[in-house]
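How it folds
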Amino acid sequence: LRPFELTLEDWAIATELRDVLKDATLFFSRDTPNLAMVIPAMDHIDNTLTEQTRAGSPLQPSISAALRLAKKTLNRYYKLSDMSATYRIAMVLHPSHKLQYFAKACWPSAWIKTAKEIVIDEFN
């Protein structure tokens, strides 16, 4: 079994990966998932990935590369959520989010305006 023994570098990579994934795991484990949590969860993951992939990051190159790929995948899901009015409606109607969530998260004002218009159009 010696050929399968982890090296010190392997252990360093495993430790970094654990630290990155732990944050996301705890975020998703804290509440009952619902549609209005999708966008905040994606924002949280995006912020974490952005933070972890900054230039000068102490992470192993393999972990940094994996995080960049994860961010690219997450951006694809952001685009897909933009094509569905359901996510925007769920966020705007959620008592603790409403339009203020997007303003606080520095989303573009045009996106916020469109979200408001979608809700008005849907329920008028």
Summary: The longest helix spans residues 8-29.
